[in-house]
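lol ok so funny story. i was supposed to be doing the assay writeup but got distracted and ended up predicting the structure for this chain instead. priorities right. anyway since i did it might as well share w the group, maybe its usefull for someone
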Amino acid sequence: MTRFNAWNVFKNGLIGQTDWDRQWRDPEPKKEYDVIIVGGGLHGLATAYYLAKNHNIKNIAVVEKGWIGGGNAGRNTTIIRSNYMMPGNHQFYEHSLKLWENLSHELNYNVMFSQRAHISLFHSPAARDAAARRYNIMNLNGTEAELWNLGQLKKNIPHLNYEDARFPIIGAAVQRRAGNARHDSVAWGYARAGDELGVDILQNCEVTGVKRNKGRIEHLETSRGLIKAKKVGFAVAGNTSRLWEMAELGNLPIETHKLQAFVTESIKPLLDQVVVYGVGGAHFYISQTDKGSMVFGGDLDWYKSYAQRGNLPIVQDSAEAAMAILPCLGRIRLIRHWAGVMDMTMDGSFFICKTPIENLYLNAGWNYGGFKASPASGWYFADLIATELPHKYIQHHNLERFEKGINLDERGAGPDPKLHG
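and the output, tada:
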């Protein structure tokens, strides 16, 4: 594989880009692997990479029913942040952010991570006080965090709707190290780096059945034949419940929902930050890409679905939320929208854990936060699969936490069983 550097980019520019190798192989499945990761999204690819890199496990396969980057990896709004406050959660997401900061160098692939700041608006003294609590905890844990008053906010983002907003803006909570990245580049970077370490990436290889024997998974039935595995990890986002049923494990405390995202036509530079707000039933986040498109999203579709397409009520809701704080967007055209398939847990926190099957491991339940968590998710899931022990940061992110009354709820709102149904 050709390594990317200034000389190779310059040389290929002179010869018509004809000297680049394939970025990863397209191998035939082996009969058996030490570890199979089901799901070729960011979490699955990152897990395989860190299994090979951190734990020196070489006989690994990533099994993907479609193509790399065709699921949630390419269907999100690419926001990266670590503004969490609960013990374990804060350390987990801060580790993820630190991995992001060096990821392009580590993978030898530009993931286009832009630390342009995450600006969370607040509209009332109560919201300001809640943000102050969260961001003070971040500061106490060594993570940079700021609170801006209205004057500071206007100086940095002068074109928000400060004059006649339905929900008046009074300030913002700010994490400067946060930002966004290019989702496709992250998937391709992890794929080529894993491939270089010997990971087999098996695209168009759908799991159609799970064969068990004496409490263990013996092999996976796939569209490309039977594949044996000593260990299996599920990292399939909204399709987790489907795989869980194939393994004859019954129900999971997960509901699957659609979360839409939107892209506009390109415009001149307007917004050099990620801006978010949530008030009065509205939920909205927006940033601008390097190509000039505005990328934004809001609430999920309030019914369960496995579809990767959106519907018009959420288009209207998100467009109204955009106009509420950025009226200048009113005349630009929306060019496309799509939906990611989200696996929503009852407390809003993820699972990285062992399962009732001895050699099956679960990575699921990412709700709204899967993209930013990708590096740390892969890191700690790989660690669990290799060592059989959960790291202290994820020790409560297991299936038993609801039985024990352990509630990992960053919102402070408690579990929401069937709320979305």
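The chain has a mean pLDDT of 93. DSSP finds eleven helices and 18 strands in the chain.
back to the writeup now i swear
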